[in-house]
């Protein structure tokens, strides 16, 4: 009887030990599942946060490059404009040379004795105008402005007055005095004496509005030029401005 009771006691101890041993892996497995769930929940959040940061960096880079491109386009417009102005001046000079050569060929005066030196005559309107333009080509804006102003004061009724006013507006444009330039270009655009310079002034006003950020106004002005002056000599540049503002 004693032996039977001892056997039962040993069997009970064995069963209890097995039960405790079997509970241990279950608890460890539960902890592992919890850790996996936490990784699954937090992992994508961290990945998404890193991706958003990289996208933000790319957007900043793109914005910086767009600003650099806009700056380069404005500089290109500036130098293109200066080139056209110089070509216009060369064309005027060639015309004047041809006229002078024609006059010289027509005049056949006999050789005369050397005339007595006289006091220098007052400069002609064309001479004053040419001096002013030459100063402008050399980027001597102070001297050019003085000569153009002198021309307007001396010869207020001359046909080249409107050209002088245009170049004065161009000087303000080149020196980035955009408010003053717009005022001068507006006066020229309202004058019908020189239609070409009037349309040039409208185009310059549109360019200035683009530079200072008035994109809607610049678009309206460019489209008006494209509609009302289809044969404008710089109509391709007007179309390019419209395309750029879209």
Task: Describe the protein in words.
- The protein has 8 helices and no strands.
- Helix 5 packs antiparallel against helix 6 (195-211) and helix 7 runs antiparallel to helix 8 (235-245).
- It has 246 residues and is mainly α.
- It starts with a helix and ends with a helix.
- Among the domains are: 41-82; 123-245, Tetratricopeptide repeat domain (Serine Threonine Protein Phosphatase 5, Tetratricopeptide repeat, Alpha Horseshoe), CATH 1.25.40.
- Helix content is 81%, strand content 0%.
- The relative contact order is 0.04.
Explain briefly what this protein structure is:
With 246 residues, this protein is mainly α. It is 81% helix and 0% strand. Helix 2 (125-137) packs antiparallel against helix 3 (141-154), helix 4 packs antiparallel against helix 5 and helix 5 runs antiparallel to helix 6 (195-211).
Distance between the termini: 106 Å
CATH topology of the domain at 123-245: Serine Threonine Protein Phosphatase 5, Tetratricopeptide repeat
Described by strand count, sense and barrel closure, the largest sheet is: none
Q: What does the radius of gyration come to? A: 42 Å
Q: How many strand elements?
A: 0
- Uncertain runs: 1-6, 18-29
- What is the H level of CATH, i.e. the homologous superfamily of the domain at 123-245? Tetratricopeptide repeat domain
User: Helical stretch count?
Assistant: 8
Q: Helix amount, in percent? A: over 70%
Order of SSEs, N→C? HHHHHHHH
The assigned structural class equals: mainly alpha
Q: Class of the domain at 123-245, according to the CATH hierarchy?
A: Mainly Alpha
In percent terms, what proportion of residues is strand? under 5%
CATH architecture of the domain at 123-245: Alpha Horseshoe
Mean pLDDT: 77
Shape: elongated
